[in-house]
Design a protein that fits this description.
With 816 residues, the chain is an alpha/beta fold. Helix content is 57%, strand content 10%. The strands form four sheets. It has a seven-stranded mixed sheet with strand order 2-3-1-4-7-9-8, sandwiched between helices. Strands 11-12-13-10-14 form a five-stranded parallel sheet, sandwiched between helices. A hairpin with a 5-residue loop joins strand 15 and strand 16. Helix 24 crosses helix 27 and helix 36 packs antiparallel against helix 37. The radius of gyration is 33 Å and the shape is globular.
Amino acid sequence: MSELPSGTVTFLFTDIEGSTKLLYELGDAYAEALAEHRRVLRDAFARHDGVEFGTEGDAFFVVFARAHDALAAAAEGQAALDGGPIRVRMGLHTGEPLLTEEGYVGIDVHRAARIAAAGHGGQVLVSQRTCELAGANGLRDLGEHRLKDLTASERIFQLGEGEFAPLKTLHQTNLPVQPTPLIGRERELDEVLALIRAHRLVTLSGPGGSGKTRLALQAAAELVEEFRDGVWFVSLAALREENAVLPTIALTLGISQPQTLDEYLAGKEALLLLDNFEQLLDAAPQVAELLRQAQAVKLLVTTRAPLHLTGEREYPVPPLADVEAVELFVERVRAAKPAFEPDEHVGEICRRLDNLPLAVELAAARTNVLVPSQLLERLEQSLPILSGGARDAPERQRTLRATIDWSYELLSDEEKQLFRRLAVFAGSFEIEAAEEVCEADLDTLASLVDKSLLRQTADGRFFMLATIREYAAERYGEDAGAEHVRRRHAERTLRVAEDAKSRHREGFEVLQAEHDNARAALDFLVDAGEAELALRLALSFGDYWFVRGHAREGRRRIEAVLAASEDAPAELRLQALTRVAGLARVVGDAEAGQRHASAAVALARELGDDAALAAALRELGDAVVGTHDYERAFVLYEESLAVARAAGESTVATVTNLADVALAAGELESAIEYSRQAAELALGPNADTARAISAFNTASALIQLGRDAEARPHLRRALETVLRLDYLELVGWCLVAAAALAEPSDSGAAAVLLGAADGAVEAADVTLGPAEQRFRELTLSKLRDRCNPGDLEESLRSGRELPIEDAVSLARQYLD
C-alpha cells in the first residue's frame, strides 16, 4: 500500500445501495458483479493517486492528497459503473485528520462517512470544504442538511444533474445539535440499536459522565427513518417532581389542551428519548402506563439507575476503549490547538480516568495551561483538576465532582454511608468482604450497583471506577467509624493473603485480585505502627511479587516495612530480610542483595535457626553470583547444603543454584549433574518450578555443548511448565534458549526470539542472572557475525514488541 498522505486530505467513501437485495436478484452472478465493481473503482482511484486505507464489506475508504483528484476519481468511477447492476453511493469530505499507526482518526473521518451514508445509489455527495478546494464546476448545491452525526448542519453538493430521492438526513426530530460526532462506540451503538428494534423500553445506565446521553442521542439519530412519527428528545434533568414527567413529554411534543398525551400518541409510531430519569424513579409506573396506552411508541431512557419495569432492557454503558478515549482527548484539544499531537502520556491520562468520557473531556480542557506530562502528574488527585468544562454544558457536568455529587445526593442515608465506607477497598472486593468490613447488606449493595456507583466484574467481584472511589474517599471523613473500618479491612486482607499463601501458586490468583487492597492495607498498618501485621502481610505477597513481575515494588514495600518495624518479632524480620535480598538481586542490585542477605545470616545465627540460616546462606550465595564471584558463591552454597541437611530441610533450591552458578562459570557438565540431582530432590508444592528450572539449566548446558537434539525435550518440558505457572521471567529464559536453537538454521527467527526474551524479562520487571546473560551473549555474538547490523537491530526490536503468545508459538517450531 502507498504511504498515506497527511495534513489536509480528502476522503472518498463508497457503499453499495441495497447490496442484500442485489445478492438475491443476481444470485450466482453477484460475486462476478461485485468483483467487477471493485476492479473498476480501484482503477479509478489509482489513476488519480488515491490510496485505499480500508474496506468494510462492499465499502471502500480512500484518501487523496488533493480534493480535485478525489472528485475526478469519483466521477470516473460512477461513469464506469453506469448502466451496470451495482449502484454505488459516494461521499467526499476534506479535513485534517490525525494519522496514527492504525490509520486516520478524527471528526473528518466521521463526517465523510455520514455524507456518504446520506446519499443514494449512483449519487456523489460533496461537502462544502471539498467543493471550495476542488471548485464548484459540475457541482449542484443541495442546501443545508443535518446529518446523523448530530453536529451543525452541512451544505452538501451533488456531482452532476441526476435526480434522486431526498437525502437520508434528519427530519421529524428535535434531537439537539452536538459539537462533535460520536467518538468510537461502534460496538455499543450496534448493541443499543438491536435492543431498541427488539424491545419497547430500553434504559442506558451508568455513572455520571459515562456518555449515556451522547450514545442515546446517536442511537436515536440512526433510527429517525424507522419511526413514521418521529424521534423526540425529552430532557428531564431540571425536574424534581414525578408528576412533571408526562406534562414535560407533552410540552416537548407540542400537545395543546384539551388533547391528552395518551390520545395524541395513540396509533403513532414514535421513539421518545427520556434523558436523565434517575431523580424521577417514582414516575416509572406512569411510564409503564404510557407504554400500555401507546402501543406503537418506544422509549429510550438514560438513567443512573434502572426503572425496574416489566419488559425493560437495561444496557450498562461501559467506559470508552483505550483508543477511543485517546481519540476523544485529541479531538477536544485540537478544537483549541489544531496542531496538537498526542504523546505517550495521553493514553496514561485516559486510563487514569477510567476512559470515562466526561473525565477525559475535562482533562483535555486543562491542556490550555498544562502539557500532558504535567497534567498526568496532577491527576494523582483528579477531582480538583477536572473542572472548567464547556460553558454551555449543564452545571452538574462542568466538573466531575459536581456530576458525582448529583448521584450522591440522590442516595438514602444508608446508601451514602455504605458508599463512603466502600472506598476503603482500593481494588475489587467480594460481597463477603463488604459485609464483614463495611457492614453492608445485600439490598443496599444492590442499590449502589443499580445507581451505577458500583460495578461488577465477570466473576462477581465489585469495584468502583477510580474517579468515583476518589470522591467516596473524600466523603469518607464524614464517617465516624472510618478508622475502625480501615482496621477491619487490613485484618481481613491479611487473613485472606495468608490463606492464599498457604496454597502456594494456587493462591496466586487470589493474591492478584487482592493486590490493590494489600497496598492500601500495608500503608495503613505502617502508618498505624502495626509492624508485625505489616510484615506478615508483606511476606504473604513475597512469592507473588517475585514470580508475577512485581519485584521492584515488593522490594520497596518490604524495605519500608523493615525500616518501621524494629520492634517486630525477630523471626519475622529474618524472613523479611531473606525475601528482600532475593527481590533486590533479581532487579539487578547485587550490592543491596548482599547487604540484606548478610544481615539475615547474622540474625539466623543469633537466633540459632538452622532452617532460616540455610535459606539466608543460599540467598547470600545468589547475591554473590551477581558480582561474578563464583568461587565464593560455591562456598556459600556448600555451607547452606550442610546446614540444611543437618536440619532435615530441603536442599533442592540450593542444588538448583549450584547448577546455575556452574552455568555462569562455564562448567557445563557440572551444571547438568547438579540439575539432575535437583530434579530428583524436587518434592512438595514448588516441585514443578524446581523441575522446570532444572530442565532449563540442563537444556542450556547441552545447547552450549553442541548437543541440540538432547536439549530440545528438556527445553520443551521447561517451557510448557513455566507457561502453565505463568512465570514470565522463566518464559524469557526459555526464549533465550530457543533463540540459540534457531540460530544455526534461521538467524532472523533467532534474533526475533532473543528480542522477545528481552521483552519478557522487561515485562517481568527483572534482569537476567549471570548464567542466562552469558547464554544470551553467546547467541547474540553468533548473530552479529552472521547478520547485517541494521537487520539484526530491527529483528530484536520486532521481537521485543511481539506478543508473548506469538513468541512462544515461534519458539515451539525449534523444539521438535
